[in-house]
Specification:
Elements lengths: L1 E7 L19 H16 L6 E4 L3 H14 L6 E2 L8 H9 L7 E6 L3 H10 L10 E6 L12 E7 L7
Parallel strand pairs: 1-4, 2-3, 2-4
Antiparallel strand pairs: 1-5, 5-6
Helix pairs in contact: 1-2
Length: 163
Amino acid sequence: MKKLYIIRHAKSSWSDEALEDFERPLNKRGKANAPMMGERLKEKHIMPDIILSSPAKRAKSTAQMIAKEIGYKKKVLFDANIYEANVEVLRNILRSLDDKNGTVFLVGHNPSLNDLAHYYVDFEANIPTCGVVEIAFASKKWAEIEPKDAELLSFDYPKKSET
């Protein structure tokens, strides 16, 4: 079984209109939400084998904050192909993963993350900033993951009330 955590970057700042989109940092709420979501993942004892992230500043910061919070000791890997990717690009990234990686965090951007979740599990909701979609695949190989083998396990986001 393979597990994928689709994680949208935390809330970013639009205060400096001169900044390129790629360089936008997290705002105050984003800086609070990323560690909070990391804490929620830690409470569930979730530890990825690999964290892949867009290198855009807001995604990079989100991935690093979550990694720190959960106690992830490896390097976060940054893949420029995740930034502004479409579903096919993201699927190719996932299908090329080493099978030794059972659990993967993919940190990136909408609309591509929404589209990826929709592709695999017909996920209709919008993934809000710092939202986490957990998908399990009944497959032993990343190269073989398909929608028919995918199951939505959970969906969490910063404003979701704890019940």
